Amino acid sequence: MENLIVLRDIAVDFDGERVLNSINLEIRDKEFITLLGPSGCGKTTTLRIIGGFVEATAGDIFFDGVRINDLPPYRRQVNTVFQRYALFPHLNVFENVEFGLKIKRVPESEGSANLIKIPEAERRTMVKEMLELVGLKGFERRNINQLSGGQQQRVAIARALVCHPRVLLLDEPLGALDLKLRKEMQIELKRIQQSTGITFVYVTHDQEEALTMSDRVVVMQGGNILQIGTPQDIYNEPINAFVADFIGESNIVEGVMRRDYYVEFAGRGFDCVDFGFDPDQRVDVVIRPEDIDIVPAEEGMWTGVVESVVFKGVHYEIAVEGCGHHWIIHSTDYCEPGTFVGMKLTPDDIHIMDRELAEEQEAEGADEA
Amino acid sequence: MKRNHAETVLTSIPYLIWMVVFTVIPLLLVTYFAFTDETGALTMANLSAVREYVAVIFRSIWLAFIATVLCLLIAYPLAYIISRAPQRRQRTYLLLVMLPMWINFLLRTYAWMTLLENTGIINRLLGIFGIGPLAMINTQGAVVLGMVYNYLPFMILPLYSVMTKIENGLIEAAQDLGAPRSTVFSSVVLPLSMPGVMTGITMVFVPAVSTFIISRMLGGGSNMMIGDLIELQFLGNAYNPNLGAAISLGLMILILFCMSMLNQLNEEDKEGMII
Amino acid sequence: MKKRSWVNTGYIGLVMAFLYAPIVVMAVFSFNESKSRALWTGFTLDWYKKLFTNEVILSSLGHTLLIAIISAVIATVIGTLAAIGINAMGRWMKSLVLNTTYMPIINPEIVTGVSLMLLFVFIRDRMGIPLEMGFLTLILAHITFSIPYVILNVIPKLRQMDKNIYDAALDLGCNPAMAFLKVVIPEIMPGVISGFLMAFTFSLDDFIISYFVSGPTFSTLPITIYAMTRKKVSPEINALSTIVFLVVLGVLTLSNYVEAKREAKTSY
């Protein structure tokens, strides 16, 4: 899989404020890649750089090996699904989806240099097929103001896809939908991506969404890319405390790496599976809530008192105060608040992150704030 | 979405050029003429000449003020009543109010001329009862009447537009909380209608103070107002564009002064503004 | 409550009587046989006939319509482009331009008329360009006072519009000009049309500014009317005002009816 889009040292300033800080990103053909991060991290700006709506202050962007910094949006083989859909109010569903097709010029025949309009009959077929693909068969004549949010969103997707772009950019398209619909659409989008083979660049602040749909995830913060990897990589091996905290819930404790495979926190030492740190280096220890088991106090590796228990349907979220830290534990078993309990885990469950790297980035973030 | 498509601003260039040539420069010319004499030399003579016409200026302000107050008094209850009427009838009422606005105000003023004449209809009717004839035309009263007549709709519409936004619910809530009608008026209706009042006052006072048609047609030659004065300097017998420009400049400044005073009284203006 | 509603309706009736009495009287006496405006002598349509054969009135009516259409069209084009540009301006500049734009609206008409007259006189006398006060100056003046109203009508529509649809059009392959034509203009069209109508109406009706910038050779209808009122003895004016009243009544009633039907249709 070659690189379809390459961003090299892209920096963007708005009104004197640095919004993107020399980022480097390679997007492969046919992949579903998600830009994930909190508000203001620069993910939407990055998307708009690819779309051509924002000009980079510095750096280069390449498409299929060609530098496209100066190419306007209407010449790029990229289409966008906007956050609030941006459907044309004066056109009905059919006309909205057909919009890009009417403008498109294709070679008259295979290999011909002569460019012509797509014939009306062919356009109609393409629009109908696309509407069927997104589950809106029969909606052609509908007024877009009469559609629900989910339906409008699918029209927006159809409108962008029907032009067969190489890349589809999606800017938090599911944000305005209710939970159930959102989950359905996530599956739909993944299915469409896999069947059309179009590269999807997706922007969201919802980490669960990112983990569900993506081939790769790009975690961003404060105009920087923190980590790029598969959902499993990011979840299991977060590069620093911010990523760990942002992706899924986690317990993050300060610890000291005494030596390889051995870390100290919560007042005692633990065997772990990480190495390569300096002896006695200060680190962040990340433990997922579902990895901690609650056991009777005598059997625990460390202890605490149950503060609260919240029923979340899928599990109980149990907060335990102990050894100077507020532990979040997910368990299918109930535990009475006020109980003195023990906690246990296996060496696999402990993830070590470099504390200095985190401090560096925290300082950078503080500068920009 | 931050990026602004800054190039779009360029579409306003034809207008900006037009605005400079036909709005800004003419006003600068007025200022220029006001401070020069026929030879083009700088002088303050024009401005001091204006002082001779203080009587005219005060008359204009005074008459316009009375007309504005009268319009306000007449229009306020009317706008309120219309705004509480059933929806369908509101539209009819508005239509009836707007209709006269669309008839050329020369014709409307002329209509009052014929009514108020010594041999006009009103005097003839009064004559049947043995009264009169009353000298109604060529008086200050006639001028005020003309102003009220012409500008009343301009007071009604802004007031109405603000009052429709005062939901019945607010008034009922006030009554429910025990407020007598006078309190409902002074603490609910009046404050909420202020933006409309300000707009209405602006839309009546400005044309009223600067009119020259109404004063000429209904006031005769003896009740000169600022507008008459200006017109005389440019198109009348006493051709003195410099003086006329000075008076015009004075009028503009007067208006700006009144408007800024109004703005001071009303922090949240601009909402009821214009449309 | 009944007593209240009688008082209310009565008050409305009173004000309406005040507003319409002069118009009605004018209408009645337009059919009067003699020239008197107070003494009814008999019914006649003579004055209407005279009106329709009056050269001066007809030609100035033609002038007025011509100027209204030309100036309204040009003002609408310049004003719409202006509104689009102004909407994209930064806050500081937008505020400056808009305040200058609204000045002719706030300014007394006499000041606007005088200032334009001075401009044209200046161009003619001090710059030596042979500019005649007449058709051209009228058109220029009418465009000038109409543009702010067009801008005033179009800008709210631009503000209400979802900015993203312009980007969406670009994204789908339109160059900027096409994007405007296909997507922005349809959205703001109601504002453009109402701006045009306003410009047209204000131009038709304008007297004061036209008075100052026209010349002896070229008259608009309001100017002709003014000249007639100076002479005081022409019931043709009554006839004219009655016709104007009926036309306006017809147009407003019609537009109201259309508006009411449209509202009924869209509120299901």
TrEMBL record, chain A:
A UniProt-annotated Pfam family: TOBE_2
Record-level Gene Ontology MF annotations: ATP binding
Keyword Disulfide bond part of the UniProt annotation: no
UniProt entry tagged with the keyword Magnesium: no
Keyword field: ATP-binding, Cell membrane, Membrane, Nucleotide-binding, Translocase, Transport
UniProt domain ABC transporter: residue ranges: 5-247
Protein name: ABC transporter ATP-binding protein
UniProtKB/TrEMBL annotation, chain C:
Transmembrane segments: 12-31, 65-89, 101-123, 135-156, 208-227, 239-258
Compartments, record wording: Cell membrane
Domain of life assignment: Bacteria
Keywords tagged on the record: Cell membrane, Membrane, Transmembrane, Transmembrane helix, Transport
Principal place of residence: membrane
Topology of the protein relative to the lipid bilayer: Multi-pass membrane protein
Record Gene3D superfamilies: MetI-like (1.10.3720.10)
Domain ABC transmembrane type-1: 61-255
Family as reported in the entry's similarity comment: Belongs to the binding-protein-dependent transport system permease family. CysTW subfamily.
Entry protein name: ABC transporter permease
Organism: Yanshouia hominis
